[in-house]
Design brief:
Blueprint: H1 10-14, H2 56-59, H3 67-70, H4 75-97, H5 104-108, H6 113-154, H7 157-166, H8 172-179, H9 193-202, H10 207-234, H11 241-269, H12 273-297, H13 305-333
Helix pairs in contact: 4-6, 6-9, 6-11, 6-12, 7-11, 10-11, 11-12, 12-13
Transmembrane segments: 77-95, 107-128
Coiled coil: 305-332
Keywords: Coiled coil, Membrane, Transmembrane, Transmembrane helix
């Protein structure tokens, strides 16, 4: 995905250009920038959500032994097993009723247990293997997405990006130094190995999970591509301050989408409440920082602005729901405010 190109405005052109027509790199000057920080009031008001006090390892709640029966990820398999058993017995009943081919002793006696038991054991074995693979897929993707979100929440990466917006006009020599602040992996390195190796197994899960997980990885890939474009723009003397700031906004816009997709994916993948709520807080913490900034700098006439506002409303609702859930949970455990998990 390439950066959105912007033609230099008249102020940029007036600031000076080379003989070849390229615009020289300029020092930061708000009077020359198309993107400005708006006051954080009204629909641009900031959303606040704290960073989790405890790590996922500290609050992790393991699944019970009856997960295979109670999980929504295997609900269709249970119905499948019941259908097999009911189908076999219905077939016996039909054959026995048609022309009195089977008497009641054969139909309802020990003889009927042989095919019934065989079908039951075969169904159990099939369901167990399919369910085991499904749970492995669910746990793999939920663990990796949680880890990626946790890294994003802890490494100060977004803060570095925002600082690039405030210092978008560094000269080329200084750009080389600041470029390292947002360096990413070499272009030849595969950083989505789990997704590429196991995406076929996603097809066995429900359509919403497939959609949310694929959305997350695609938007993270878009973030990576946009950051690469930003790195080139930071050292290109022909790129204006407005273009650099616009690209920083683009990167944070896609981070906002990626974190919201992570929230939806983790909400669909994780079933234990305490694990789910912690994942909510991590993903929303990162997404809210990006969303707050994008709403501050994005012009109201940008066609994406209403989408950003819609996500902000979803973040607010999620924060309220998270607070309600945690209050009830802590009340059940008899915890005081200072002892709360998150």
């Amino acid at each position: 995905m390439r950066a959105i190109s912007m033609r230099p405005d008249s102020a940029d052109l007036a600031a000076g250009s080379g003989k070849d027509g390229t615009v020289a790199a300029m020092a930061p000057d708000d009077s020359l920038c198309q993107l400005r920080r708006h006051e954080a009031v009204g629909d641009r008001a900031r959303i606040e959500i704290p960073y989790p006090k405890r790590s996922p390892e500290d609050i992790y709640s393991p699944y019970s032994m009856v997960r295979g029966i109670t999980s929504r990820h295997t609900r269709d398999l249970i119905l499948y097993l019941v259908s097999i058993i009911a189908g076999v017995y219905s077939l016996l009943f039909f054959v026995g009723s048609f022309g009195n081919l089977l008497n009641e002793e054969i139909l309802f006696g020990p003889t009927a247990l042989v095919p019934f038991g065989a079908a039951f054991l075969a169904g159990i074995g099939t369901v167990y293997q399919i369910g085991k693979r499904r749970f492995a897929t669910v746990d793999l993707f939920s663990s990796e997405i949680t880890a990626r979100v946790r890294i994003s929440a802890s490494d100060g990466f977004i803060e570095k990006l925002i600082s690039q917006f405030d210092h978008a006009g560094f000269r080329e020599a200084e750009d080389r130094h600041h470029r390292q602040a947002i360096s990413i992996e070499p272009s030849g390195e595969l950083t989505f190995e789990l997704f590429h190796r196991h995406y076929e197994q996603l097809g066995s899960l429900t359509p919403p999970i497939v959609d949310y997980v694929c959305d997350y990885y695609n938007y993270v890939m878009s973030v990576r591509d946009e950051i690469r474009d930003l790195q080139h723009m930071l050292t290109d003397p022909g790129v204006t301050v407005s273009e650099r700031r616009h690209q920083v906004m683009n990167v944070l816009f896609f981070i906002d989408i990626a974190m919201f997709s992570a929230y939806r994916a983790l909400d669909a993948l994780i079933e234990k409440d305490i694990n789910k709520w912690h994942a909510w807080q991590l993903s929303c913490y990162v997404g809210v920082v990006a969303n707050n900034f994008v709403r501050e700098v994005m012009p109201a006439d940008d066609p994406r602005y209403s989408e950003v506002q819609h996500r902000a409303a979803r973040y607010r609702d999620t924060v309220k729901q998270l607070n309600r859930n945690l209050k009830r949970h802590h009340a059940r455990l008899g915890l005081k405010r200072g002892e709360m998990f998150f």
